Amino acid sequence: MAASTAATATFAAAKLLASSSPKLKQPFSLLSPHKKPTTLFSSSFAAAPLRRPQPLRFSTFPKISAIISVGDKLPDATLSYFDSSDELKTISVSELTSNKKTILFAVPGAFTPTCSQKHLPGFVEKAAELKAKGVDAIACISVNDAFVMKAWKEDLKVGDEVLLLSDGNGDFTRAIGCELDLSDKPVGLGVRSRRYAMYVEDGVVKILNLEEGGAFNVSSAEDMLKAI
Prior knowledge:
Layout: H1 2-20, H2 43-47, E1 78-82, E2 88-92, H3 93-97, E3 101-107, H4 113-125, H5 127-132, E4 137-142, H6 146-155, E5 163-166, H7 171-175, E6 179-182, E7 190-193, E8 196-201, E9 204-210, H8 221-227
Parallel strand pairs: 3-4, 4-5
Antiparallel strand pairs: 1-2, 3-8, 6-7, 8-9
EC number: 1.11.1.25
Family: Belongs to the peroxiredoxin family. Prx5 subfamily.
GO cellular component, one term: cytoplasm
């Protein structure tokens, strides 16, 4: 009997407290007071399984250095060559390209098969057609010394159609970010240049056909003729 009386009293007190408490107003909303409040949670959301937070992952690979791109001004560097009198000469990139329309193409190495059989001979063969399109000068660049470039020119019987330039220390190649590390190859090529062909107007790159490594897919004289 005492327990029943206590329970009745507790229920009555709870009812009195509820009736005397202020009623909750509509939840605060940033929306207009005339609009219905947005439902913050849905049953589908509540039913969705919780996902464990994923740990942050950082790449262990170094960032690839930027290379020269269309619209860039070529950095200056000094290149060397032997002229028709067998005198060793130097020429800067700015001399070669300032106020001119110039094609520069690079090969991984003199006397290497693709460079000797396709890349350089292609530009020699198409030189007249390229110059008919307004090209003032065509130059082949390789990370070889000037003596090797001279011997290569003589071996392929290249005339004045294409200037063969030595980037002996790879200064220009590094400046445009086109190094090609072949140190792991058994022939001992070391660090050379990626294969490319670029069309430059007054020192600014207008067309750039850059190969992946030493591949020969987009940098031929025919490709440049189509692009100009």
